[in-house]
Design goal:
Length: 496
RNA sequence: GGCGGUAUCGUCUAGGGGUCAGGACACGUGGUUCUCAGCCACGGGACCGGGGUUCGAAUCCCCGUACCGCUACCA
C-alpha cells in the first residue's frame, strides 16, 4: 500500500472513530488483472499494522456484505438492467480503436475529449439483434446534456461542472465487470456510506457519480477530496523518491504509530494547534491516534498538496521510539540485528537484556534499523580493528592515554562485573592514579572498553557490556566480552 | 487541447482587511566539564505576479502564471 493511500485511510479512520461512526473496508477488485489474492492480503496486513482497525470488511463480514466487489457482481448487473430499462443507459458496440480515433480528433479540434455518442441512438431492437449476432457490448450511462452538476465538497466547498464536458461513461464493461464509477455508487448507496473521503484524483469522477446517484434514486453521501501527497520535487510521490509503501517504511524500522501520526499531519493540523505567539501544549504535533480522532474535523483539512518529508517522519518516529516499551523495541530490533550480521534469537532472558540496553539506542536513533549499529559495541569488540584506526593509534600514543588505559586494566583486574557505581569508582581510581580528567580520562577509557571513538554514554554502555558478559549461552544472544577482559586485551595489544 | 483543483519560510502548517505574519521539521551558532546521537537555548528564513475594491490587502474580487488531477471497457 502506497503511503498516499494509507493517508486517505487514516483520515477516514479518524473521522469514523472520532464521531462514533463505522469504518468499513471494501475491496474494489473489479479489475481482474490487477486484483490478486496477494494485493488484497497486503492491504489488510498494512492496514492492520498501522492500527487502522475496521468494523466491517471481507475478513470480518458485517451486515452489508459481501465486501469484495468481485462478489457483488449480481448487484451491479441488476442495477445496470434497471438503468437500461429506464432508458438511462444503453449498449455500446464501439471498438477501442474507433473510440481512440474519435478522441484524438476531438482533441485536435479543441473539443473536450469525450464519447461521441455513436451508439446513443441505437434502438433496443437494433442493440438486441447485434447482441444476438454475437457482439459483446459495454453499457454506457446516458449523461443528460446541457445542465450543471453541483456537489458539495467538505474540504473545498461547492464544485460545479457542466454535463456538456462529461462523456457517457461506461458503467459495465464488455466482460460484464462493472466500471469503478458505477460499482462505487451502487456499493456506497447499498452500504449506507455517509462520507466518501478519497484523493482529489477522484474529483473529476464525482459529477458522473452524482448523476448516477440521481438516476438510481439514491441519496447522496457527503464528499471530501484530499489533496495528494507529493515527492520533494513536487511530482507525485513515486519510487524514485525513495520509499513509498507502508511495507518499506515498516522494514526501515518506523513505528506504525509514528507513520500514522506523521501522515495525518500532511494536510491536517488540529484546530488552533500551531496557533498563537508561543507554543503551548496545544501546539504539539505529536498526537496519539485516539487523540487525533478526538480532534479531527474534515473542515480543518487543507486544500493543497503536501510534500512527503521523511526527515520529519524520522523526527516523529524518534518521539515514539523514546516513549515505547523497551521490551517491544527489543523484540522489533531482533530482525535488524540478524540483518546486520549480529545473529541472535533471544529467549526471555536475552530479550530482557536487550531491553535493558535499549535505552542507549532508542533515545538517539531515528529508526529501528539503526539500533544494531548503535549497540554493536556490545557484541563485536575487536582490539586489532580499533588500533588499526590511525586516529585511535595516534591518540593512544600519548603518554596520558596510555597511562589511563593501563591504570584502568589494573583497576578492573580485581573488580567484579561493573554496574554504574562500580564503573564510576573505577574511573575515579584511574583519575587519582593518572591525574587525567575530563576528555583525556574518559576518551581513552571509551576506546579501550568499546573499541570505538564514539557511541552511547559510558555510564550506560559499560554496565550493559558487563551485564551481557554474565548472560548464559542459551540466552540466544551472541557472546559478549566483559570490560575486564577488554581492558586487559587492549593493554596487551597496545604493548605489541 | 478541454474541464476541474491548488497557491504563506527549503518542507508541513497557523492566521486572515490594520499582526513584530506564529509554530514544527530541516539548517546555523552556543550549551550539556568523554565522543557521536539526543536534549536545551538562540538565530536566519515566507504571504506566486499584475490589476481592482478599500483610509488600509498577505487576507476580498478579477486576470495571469505555475503546479496537480481528470480527460480509459484503471481504480
Amino acid at each position: 500500500m502506497h503511503v498516499g493511500n494509507v493517508r486517505t485511510a487514516v483520515f477516514n479512520w479518524l473521522l469514523a472513530r472520532g464521531r462514533g461512526g463505522t469504518f468499513i473496508l471494501r475491496i474494489e477488485d473489479t479489475d481482474v488483472e490487477r486484483s490478486t489474492r496477494d494485493s488484497e492480503s497486503a492491504i489488510l496486513r498494512d492496514l492492520r499494522w498501522m492500527g487502522l482497525n475496521w468494523d466491517e470488511g471481507p475478513d470480518v463480514g458485517g451486515p452489508y456484505g459481501p465486501y469484495r466487489q468481485s462478489e457483488r457482481l449480481h448487484l451491479y448487473e441488476s442495477y445496470a438492467t434497471q438503468l437500461l430499462n429506464a432508458g438511462a443507459a444503453y449498449h455500446c458496440f464501439c471498438s477501442t480503436a474507433q473510440l481512440e480515433t474519435e478522441r484524438r480528433d476531438a482533441v485536435a479540434a479543441g473539443r473536450p475529449a469525450l464519447y461521441a455518442g455513436t451508439c446513443r441512438r441505437l434502438t433496443r431492437e437494433q442493440a438486441q439483434s447485434r447482441i444476438d449476432a454475437g457482439e459483446r457490448p459495454a453499457i454506457r450511462f446516458r449523461v443528460p446534456q446541457g445542465r450543471d452538476v453541483v456537489f458539495g465538497d467538505i474540504v473545498r466547498g461547492a464544485i460545479k461542472v457542466s454535463t456538456d464536458v462529461i462523456g457517457d461513461p461506461v458503467i459495465v464493461r464488455a466482460d460484464g465487470h462493472p466500471a469503478y464509477n458505477f460499482a462505487v455508487v451502487v456499493d456506497d448507496a447499498l452500504m449506507e456510506i455517509t462520507h466518501v473521503i478519497r484523493g482529489e484524483d477522484h474529483i473529476s469522477n464525482t459529477p458522473r457519480q452524482v448523476l448516477l446517484y440521481e438516476a438510481l434514486g439514491f441519496p447522496l453521501p457527503a464528499f471530501a477530496h484530499l489533496a495528494l501527497v507529493m515527492g520533494p520535487d513536487h511530482s507525485p510521490l513515486s519510487k524514485r523518491h525513495g520509499a513509498t509503501s507502508v511495507a518499506e517504511f515498516r522494514s526501515k524500522g518506523y513505528l506504525p504509530e509514528a507513520l500514522v501520526n506523521y501522515l495525518a499531519l500532511i494536510g491536517w493540523s488540529p484546530r488552533g494547534s500551531a496557533h498563537g505567539r508561543s507554543a503551548g501544549d496545544d501546539a504539539k504535533e505529536i498526537l496519539p491516534i485516539d487523540e487525533m480522532a478526538r480532534r479531527f474535523a474534515l473542515e480543518d483539512v487543507g486544500h493543497s498538496a503536501g510534500v512527503f518529508d521523511e526527515e520529519k517522519l524520522a523526527w516523529v518516529n524518534r518521539h515514539y521510539l523514546k516513549a515505547a516499551d523497551p521490551v517491544r523495541l527489543a523484540e522489533l530490533s531482533v530482525p535488524y540485528f540478524n540483518q546486520a550480521g549480529i545473529p541472535m534469537s533471544p529467549n526471555a532472558q536475552g530479550l530482557e537484556f536487550l531491553a535493558s540496553a535499549m535505552a542507549m539506542a532508542s533515545a538517539s536513533v531515528d529508526r529501528l534499523n539503526e539500533v544494531p549499529a548503535r549497540l554493536a559495541l556490545l557484541f563485536d569488540y575487536n582490539v586489532e580493528a580499533a588500533l588499526g584506526d590511525p586516529h585511535v593509534r595516534d591518540e593512544m600514543n600519548g603518554d596520558g592515554a596510555r597511562a589511563v588505559v593501563t591504570a584502568l586494566a589494573d583497576a578492573l583486574a580485581q573488580s567484579p562485573r561493573l554496574d554504574r557505581e562500580r564503573f564510576r569508582a573505577a574511573a575515579n581510581q584511574v583519575k587519582a592514579r593518572t591525574g587525567q580528567k575530563g576528555k583525556s580520562l574518559f576518551h581513552p577509557i571509551r576506546l579501550a572498553l568499546t573499541g570505538r571513538a564514539e557511541g552511547p554514554e559510558l555510564d550506560l554502555a559499560v554496565p550493559a557490556i558487563d551485564r551481557g558478559a554474565e548472560l548464559p549461552a542459551d540466552a540466544g544472544i551472541p557472546k559478549i566480552v566483559g570490560c575486564r577482559e577488554r581492558a586487559t586485551a587492549f593493554v596487551a595489544a597496545l604493548e605489541r
